[in-house]
Amino acid sequence: MSVQIHPASFVEPGAQFGTDVVIGPGAVIGPDVTIGDRTRVDAHALITGWTTIGTDCHVHHGAVLGTPPQDLKYDGHEPSYLEIGDHSVFREYMTANLATEPGFTTRIGSHCLLMAYAHVGHNCQIGDRVILANAVQLAGYVVVDDWAIVGGSTVVHQFTRIGRHSMIGGGSRIPQDVAPFIKCAGSPPRNAGLNSIGLQRRGVSPEAVAALEKSYRIFFRGGHTVGKAVEAIRQALPGIPEVEHFARFCETSVRGVSR
User: Fold this and answer.
1) 206-232 confidence digits (pLDDT tens)
2) 4-141 architecture in CATH?
3) Smallest Cα–Cα separation from 40: which of 57, 18, 63?
4) If we measure between CA atoms, which residue out of 132, 78, 128 comes closest to residue 108?
5) Strand 28-29's sheet: what is its strand order?
6) Which residues contact 60 (CB under 8 A, 6 or more apart)?
7) Residue 89 backbone dihedrals phi, psi, to 5 degrees
8) Cα separation of the two ends of the chain
9) Mean pLDDT throughout 175-191?
10) CA distances (Å), 118 to each of 50, 94, 126, 139, 163, in order?
11) Which pTM value belongs to this model?
12) How far apart are the C-alpha atoms of 176 and 33, rounded to whole Å?
């Protein structure tokens, strides 16, 4: 099977396609776009800018990828990029922008699901197997680590980091970092314990889950400063990779961890 380009689409010269790519009617593909094998672009999607999409992705109707950032510092005179991994799905009317600074990149990983009307702002770094539900809005420079799930209509402040395996409830306002492995929701957000079921489903050992539960209690309920809490966690639970990742995330947070 060769590339299938619908006659009602508009593909500019210079666009590059892998094998078995399908471009639907009304889709617009810019000249600096690269699309990997078996990726499907549905009707009236727009892919422009210096955008690279991996293999086996699906860009649904009306999605917009690679447009200029919503940032007054952007001048567009030199390339900045949007890079997307493999096996990711972009539902109707979601948007993702190029980075602001020349040579910089907005990244979205592999096996992600970005639902309808979600927005990924400039310079965001989205890991693998991330789910952004309907109308999630990420400002610029947000980092979302692997396996995180963000509920619908949640808004995330710029420069915020969302930790791996965390789960944020819908309709939340996230002004500070969300620690890995936890659940939180609200405006302002309140933590709601460890994401235990999610961790079990992903094969994290019962011993590691129990250690993370102890870490959660020390950090969020112990009444310590961040430094004292991290020190207590390392003393009580040494040598456990998940615990060390939790501690390291908390002590290196720039915006502060939602507590």
Assistant:
1) 999 999 999 999 999 999 999 999 999
2) 3 Solenoid (2.160)
3) 57
4) 128
5) 10-11, 28-29, 46-47, 64-67, 95-97, 119-120, 137-138, 155-156, 173-174
6) 42, 45, 89, 90, 91, 92
7) -120, 130
8) 53
9) 97
10) 20, 5, 13, 11, 19
11) 0.96
12) 34
d(CA 144, CA 164): 7
Query: Which residues 6+ apart lie within 8 Å of 45 measured at CB?
Result: 24, 27, 28, 59, 60, 61, 62, 63, 64, 65
Q: Is it true that domain 199-252 has CATH number 1.20.1180.10? A: yes
The rounded distance, in Å, linking the Cα atoms of 25 and 32 is 20
Amino acid at 246: F
Confidence at residue 181, expressed as pLDDT on a 0 to 100 scale: 98
Q: Tell me, what DSSP letter sits at residue 177?
A: B
List 81's β-bridge partners, or say none: 50, 105
Q: Which residue has the tokens 């639907």?
A: 24
H/E stretch holding 64 reads: strand 64-67
Domain boundaries, the chain: 4-141, 199-252
| Pair 170, 132: CB distance under 8 Å | no
Reported in sequence order, the residue ranges of 113-203 that DSSP labels E, i.e. its strands, are 113-114, 119-120, 125-126, 131-132, 137-138, 143-144, 149-150, 155-156, 161-162, 167-168, 173-174, 182-186, 189-194
Of the candidates 198, 237, 201, the one whose C-alpha atom is nearest the C-alpha of residue 217 is 237
Decide if 213 contacts 202 (C-beta within 8 A).
no
For residue 180, which amino acid is it? P
